[in-house]
Write a structure and sequence with these properties.
alpha+beta; BirA Bifunctional Protein, domain 2; binds phenylalanine; 7-stranded mixed beta sheet
């Protein structure tokens, strides 16, 4: 009997398996209910007392040998599986690829481009570091004119002639220099103003400005174009134009849309009036056309400009402009389902 146990110990020690099935049948053979170990424990009861000690020790040795063996082969098989990694099983489903999302500023910008391209406007771009001529002088801002203070400018320290553009009207000057009318273009882009940063304003923001030059363009054309835009963009079909002043347009106006007063938010953002200011516009001043070598007796036109952040804040109900620039993934991820 002792010899039989020793034989089993030998068998267990020399056992090896390279797959889970072989290991499992080894385990069942020895330690399942009907396994060898159970049989031995049953026999143990019939062993004479003076042999019990030797017999018991042998069974225990067999038991631990088998348990150690099973554990070590199991570990080995698992580590082998791990090291084979994704190539171990070619039918395993792939790990998901995490998709990025567009920035809300890009979403709104693309939407504006889409709307205006439907009525024949193309997209033009220009440099962010501009000279005084394109950002101010050509746009009918006389030197030392207080209108320059409307847009607090960042100047380039080594060359005060150069500045960060304060609006994308500078792109329109470049466009008029380069192309002959009729012209229809919108200029989206980043602009810079030396303003205190708060939840409502930032020193960097984005604009889309539009320019339309042809023969016999009227103020009614401007109004209809803007009405078309506000309907498409906000689904609102009531606008009003209030007289305003810009050096490069005459007459000039601020455009308000009627947002409504249905919710508490409507009351808050419209300060209880129902109206929201969304852009500036006007008929291009003849001086600007002259500065860009377009004959104001032959051609005229209109221009308009709006802030992209402001529109994004309205459309997505974002209460703090700084969120656009913080690159907080929790904020950006919310735009995943947008187009
Ligand atoms: N350039 C103006 C601004 O940045 C906006 C504007 C553009 C107004 C065109 C009238 C016409 O405030």
């Amino acid at each position: 009997m002792i010899d039989k146990i020793k034989e089993f110990i030998g068998e267990a020690q020399s056992f090896s398996a390279d797959n889970k099935e072989a290991l499992e049948s080894f385990r069942i053979k020895f330690i399942s209910k009907k396994g060898i170990l159970n049989d031995l424990f049953n026999e143990f009861k019939t062993v004479p007392n003076d042999q019990k000690k030797e017999f018991g020790q042998a069974i225990n040795l067999l038991k631990t040998t088998i348990e150690d063996k099973v554990k070590s082969i199991q570990d080995f098989l698992e580590s082998k599986e791990d090291s084979q990694g994704i190539y171990g099983d070619l039918t395993r489903p792939g790990s998901p690829i995490s998709l990025g999302s567009r920035h809300p500023i890009s979403l709104v910008k693309n939407q504006v481009i889409d709307i205006f391209s439907n009525i024949g406007f193309n997209v033009s771009e220009g440099p962010e570091i501009e000279d005084d001529w394109h950002n101010f002088t050509a746009l009918n801002f006389p030197e030392y004119h207080p209108a320059r203070d409307m847009q607090d400018t960042f100047f380039v320290q080594t060359n005060p002639e150069m500045q960060l553009r304060t609006h994308t009207s500078s792109v329109q000057v470049r466009y008029m220099d380069e192309f002959k009318p009729p012209l229809r273009t919108i200029s989206p882009g980043r602009v810079f103003r030396n303003e205190a940063i708060s939840s409502r304003s930032h020193c960097i923001f984005h604009q889309v400005e539009g320019l339309y030059i042809d023969k016999n363009v009227s103020f009614a054309d401007l109004k209809q174009t803007l009405l078309y835009f506000t309907k498409e963009m906000f689904g609102k079909s009531k606008i009003r134009l209030r007289p305003s002043y810009f050096p490069f347009t005459e007459p000039s106006a601020e455009v308000d849309i009627y947002w409504g007063l249905k919710t508490e938010t409507d009351y808050r953002i419209t300060k209880g009036t129902g109206w929201l200011e969304i852009m500036g516009c006007g008929m291009v001043d003849p001086n600007v056309l002259k500065n860009c070598n377009i004959d104001p007796n032959e051609y005229n036109g209109f221009a308009f400009g709006m802030g992209i952040e402001r529109m994004a804040m309205l459309l997505y109900q974002i209460s703090d402009i700084r969120m656009f620039y913080e690159n907080d993934v929790r904020f950006l991820e919310q735009f995943k389902s947008s187009f």
